[in-house]
Please model this.
Amino acid sequence: MALLTLRNITLAFGGPPLLDGITLQIEQGERLCLMGRNGSGKSTLLKLVGGEFPPDGGDIVRQQGLRVALVSQEVPQGLSGTVFDVVAGGMGNAAELLAEYHRISHLLATGEDGEELLKRLEITQKLLEDCDGWSLHQEVERILERLSLEPEAEFDTLSGGTKRRALLGRALVSQPDILLLDEPTNHLDIDTIIWLEEFLLKNVKTLLFVTHDRAFARRLANRVAELDRGRIYAFSCGYDTFVERREALLEAEITRQALFDKKLAQEEAWIRQGIKARRTRNEGRVTALKKLRDERRQRRERLGSVKMELQVAERSGALVVEAENAVFGYDGRNIINDLTTIITRGDRIGIIGPNGSGKTTLLRLLLGELLPHQGEVKLGSRREVLYFDQMRAQLDPDKSVQDNVGEGNDTLIINGKPRHIIGYLQDFLFSPERARSPVRILSGGERNRLLLAKLFTKPSNLLVMDEPTNDLDAETLDLLEELLMEYPGTLLLVSHDRDFLNNVVTSTLAVSVDGQVRESVGGYDDWLRQAAAGTIEAPTTSNPAPLARPQTQAARPKKMSFKDQRELDGLPERIATLEAEQATLHERIADPALYRSAGAEVARMTSRLGELERELVLVYHRWEELEELRS
Model:
């Protein structure tokens, strides 16, 4: 029996139904990725499954005792207190007792004394015993340790990524049968995204998630469903196969609709012939025409694609920026250390690094907005800069969509041609009604599209984009990728989207939390391979990583434990298994026939080879460490 079944679910908020008779089952062990255009109803469907509100029609059948937990895109309002309190809040009725016990214990441990505290502790202990609270307390502590969370930290003071981990912990302590995640990678850096992938694969059995991160979907999903025009289409396959099948379905739909429209046009031409169409023997044909007209009226056209074009300014000088031993910092701490690089016209530079490592500071140094405290940054000539700010500060939330882009003008000049502001905004999927709405009511994806529309009204030869992919659907991401790949100017791109980096950039600057900036050729996967091979040094990070970094000599234990000896004994077999898989993949990739029949599989094999290379480096390093301990 399915864990959860949706039967003929309908839901509308005025206008066409957001969900129009959808049916879906979720089985145990499925990791179902929910895809769809911005505004198609993905988040709404997650909330329906999570029980936040009922549908207008249809049934949601849950297995008896089913537990479901939702981690939303946005941090819920009103959450405060310590991380322990927030995570324990997922326990339901026992949460307040757990939080009270933890607070009293912490006060006593920090030196506070008093009969009153001891009495409160005794009462709380008794209440916890009555509701099996001790096992729940241990579960909270286990989750906190697994997620690398500091229990006494104040939730309000955490970074966005750490808040996301705390909310994940809050969901996990309820031990849900189905975990719901809405855009879990938004505003996370790459290290944390990879850590999250590993964590979910190892610790969560059944998952329903929405994501725009194609690499994340590719790694996790064993089933994919797409919401499109109120209907849902489910595919029992991984992400790459889903993309192929969806394209085939769309092509078939276009062909089918073209044939339908041709037949309708022929029947409309026939009915206009007049009296011949009204003869008794033709009444069946007239009735059939009425049905064709009804079917055409009820057809919901697929939402159009964004139409984007960049305006290119006069070419910049050959040198865009040159930095030599540049240092910059705040409050006595260096954010950027010893930066040396040369960026020339036409370069497409990706910038990666943990949250808080200084990526935005690096951008401002390269743009000349900040002056180095030491060293030198030389700026090239004839630079026309467009800056996509991840905080979207260029948008006025109280002004309309139209006024934000047109700045009071009804006509724009785009590549030398006049365009009416409403028509231009329709290229970015804003209807005339939406164009007159205030920006504050827009979704995250709509705000990103609006900022792109605003920026692209101006010519540039240096495009700076700080996290442009957040909240954009996969189709818009594909179009933006193509646009940037064809852009003749220079691009500086900060992104956590690994596929986007791989497809767009020609070199990568990796920023460490210690301020070091290391350069490599190619995109993210190229940087990963070079870091694993030791040709460049991987940047240090303060975030949890999917694979532990090699310990320093000072951190190693002095004696080999029994556990270490068992690990060492098992390493040769592990290495042999990894190398055998590596050899098999190399052999398959060398076969020319593979490229004629399995393009998507080639990409997966190449990605897996990168993972194997990285894992082997770490395993060999661990072997050396353990051998040193034994000696």
